[in-house]
UniProtKB/TrEMBL annotation:
<dbReference type="GO" id="GO:0006226">
    <property type="term" value="P:dUMP biosynthetic process"/>
</dbReference>
<dbReference type="InterPro" id="IPR036157">
    <property type="entry name" value="dUTPase-like_sf"/>
</dbReference>
<dbReference type="GO" id="GO:0004170">
    <property type="term" value="F:dUTP diphosphatase activity"/>
</dbReference>
<feature type="domain" description="dUTPase-like">
    <location>
        <begin position="68"/>
        <end position="176"/>
    </location>
</feature>
<comment type="similarity">
    <text>Belongs to the dUTPase family.</text>
</comment>
<protein>
    <recommendedName>
        <fullName>dUTP diphosphatase</fullName>
        <ecNumber>3.6.1.23</ecNumber>
    </recommendedName>
</protein>
<dbReference type="Pfam" id="PF00692">
    <property type="entry name" value="dUTPase"/>
</dbReference>
<dbReference type="InterPro" id="IPR029054">
    <property type="entry name" value="dUTPase-like"/>
</dbReference>
<keyword id="KW-0546">Nucleotide metabolism</keyword>
<dbReference type="GO" id="GO:0046081">
    <property type="term" value="P:dUTP catabolic process"/>
</dbReference>
<dbReference type="InterPro" id="IPR008181">
    <property type="entry name" value="dUTPase"/>
</dbReference>
<dbReference type="InterPro" id="IPR033704">
    <property type="entry name" value="dUTPase_trimeric"/>
</dbReference>
<keyword id="KW-0378">Hydrolase</keyword>
<dbReference type="GO" id="GO:0000287">
    <property type="term" value="F:magnesium ion binding"/>
</dbReference>
Amino acid sequence: MARGFKIVSQYAQAGLHLPYRATKQAAGYDFEAAEDFTLPSIWKLNFIKVLWQLHRSETASTTDLDAAAKVLKPWLVPTGIKAFMNDGEYLLLANRSSNPLKRNLILPNGIGVIDADYYDNPKNEGAIFVQLINMGIRDVHIKKGERIAQGIFTPYLTVTDEENVTTTRSGGFGSTNK
Ligand SMILES: O=c1ccn([C@H]2C[C@H](O)[C@@H](COP(=O)(O)OP(=O)(O)OP(=O)(O)O)O2)c(=O)[nH]1
Ligand SMILES: [Mg+2]
């Protein structure tokens, strides 16, 4: 029975901290940003301009749409951390409760599901990223070492007499092609 965190090789010399529980009975292990990171405000002018054009049923140019999509896409903040755990467990990645309140930062995926087989996967070593969107009107500058999310080791159940699932994981973010 083992579960825990390791620093991925890319950040071996970066002086990162392993996730830690801030209080005696905290459920979540706080993850820190592995590097400085700027989250642009979703309300960038070109995004507004595109919305206005779409609203006035003018066709927004593809470059404007591409620019808006760029601002809209969730930003992957690196943690430099990978998590190992037992069969039947996953790491639930949740937003910090202060992020929306104080910094207008939301997790577009609601929660992150870090699977046990993501650890040391061939594509990215199981490096955990926090997807964040900045709903505020100002860009948010995250400093390396700032706490950006929390991970909770969680058991999960599966259906009874499930046929053996054999697909092995190759990466993350949509990499499991059926
Ligand atoms: O916020 C997140 C969510 C996921 N992951 C990583 C860990 C997880 O094991 C993997 C796959 O996540 P998930 O299964 O939620 O996404 P998917 O779209 O189903 O991708 P996949 O096809 O890789 O399973 O991506 C993160 O690093 N951060
Ligand atoms: Mg998946």
